[in-house]
Design a protein that fits this description.
single chain; alpha+beta; Fructose-1,6-Bisphosphatase, Chain A, domain 1; D-Maltodextrin-Binding Protein, domain 2; eight-stranded mixed beta sheet; 28% helix
């Protein structure tokens, strides 16, 4: 059986993008290199002084973990060195990072990234991940601008995530299906392990933080009760599975079938997840695998972006399960959506 590395796979698929002339391939390669470095540090996090908090708070009002800072620096460094992007938007940075170097002067792309999703789980050895989204720039030349990032998710050229768990896996799409690559530590390469990934149309897993039940919209409360009812025809009750690391929860449901819900709450009336660098790339991947992603009412990738760190509720996963959850949301209309 032939082993196909990420680099080989990207080169073979280069003909899908005749306008790109190899830049997109090199950009995806740069992300893969940074992911290997971050994976190495995640794996030895308990052995070196990289755990714990820096004492700083990021733009989201969350404590910044040391490994957050490391991952952010690695991806920014790799993308700057590669010369294929003119600007970066990161969860860890309040403003965009314009890139004005000799190698990036003709760069065609911008990257939006959550360098370490689920970082609150680092200290307890639970899977964490990286989420990234790639757009073609809309500004004409020079360093990238905020305008380059104010594009709907439907304009994404590519998106992916890396999950750092029992194995390290990179999953990405360029709008022509979804492929997964597992890092083989013996050769230091991502190898194709999950070609043409398809998510089941339905499943028996629902994933959300039920600790916030009292703060959920009525539609979500009713849907949870529906999931817990006994009904042989629909194989209910469903199993509740919630890791608390978005990449890990969505990756599991992508493979096994299920729905992941992060709704509005009375504390977060606009939702908590970020549209640009969390929800849009995850929606692109899940849709390409045959699933669905909405805010409970509207398709995620059709939402307008008005600010860099814009938040949104998210209902994502197997199509039939997302549709059923939306039925409950529509039946119990929520004015905050």
């Amino acid at each position: 059986m032939r082993v196909q590395t990420l680099g080989q796979f990207i080169i073979e698929k280069q003909t899908d993008f005749p306008y790109a002339k190899g830049e997109l391939s090199r950009l995806l390669r740069d992300i893969g290199i940074a992911a290997k470095i971050v994976n190495r540090e995640v794996n030895k996090a308990g052995l070196v002084e990289i755990l714990g908090e820096t004492g700083e708070v990021n733009v989201q009002g969350e404590q910044v973990k040391k490994l957050d800072v490391f991952a952010n620096e690695q991806f920014i460094s790799a993308l700057k060195a590669g010369g294929e992007v003119c600007a970066i938007a990161s969860e860890e940075c309040e403003d965009i990072i314009p890139i004005d170097t000799q190698v990036s002067k003709n760069a065609k792309y911008v990257v939006a990234i959550d360098p370490l999703d689920g970082s609150s789980n680092i200290d307890v050895n639970v899977s964490v991940g990286t989420i990234f989204s790639i757009y073609r720039r809309v500004s004409l030349s020079g360093p990238g601008t905020l305008e380059d990032f104010m594009q709907r998710g439907t304009e994404q050229i590519a998106a992916g995530y890396v999950i750092y768990g029992s194995s390290c896996m990179l999953v990405y799409t360029t709008g022509r299906g979804v492929n997964g690559f597992t890092l083989d530590p013996s050769i230091g390469e991502f190898c194709l392990s999950n070609p043409d990934m398809k998510t089941p149309q339905t499943g028996n897993i629902y994933s959300l933080n039920e600790g916030n039940y009292l703060h959920f919209p009525d539609g979500v409360k009713k849907y949870i009760k529906y999931c817990q009812e006994e009904d042989k025809a629909t194989d209910r009750p469903y199993s509740s599975r919630y890791i608390g690391s978005g990449v890990a929860d969505i990756h599991r449901n992508l493979l096994k079938g299920g729905v992941y819900i992060y709704p509005t709450t009375t504390k977060s009336p606009k939702g908590k997840l970020r549209l640009l660098y969390e929800c849009n790339p995850l929606a692109f991947i899940v849709e390409q695998a045959g699933g669905k992603a909405t805010d409970g009412k509207t398709r995620i990738m059709e939402k307008n972006i008005k600010e860099l760190h814009q938040r949104t509720p998210l209902f994502i996963g197997s199509t039939q399960m997302v549709d059923k959850a939306m039925e409950f949301m529509q039946k119990h209309e929520v004015s905050t959506l």
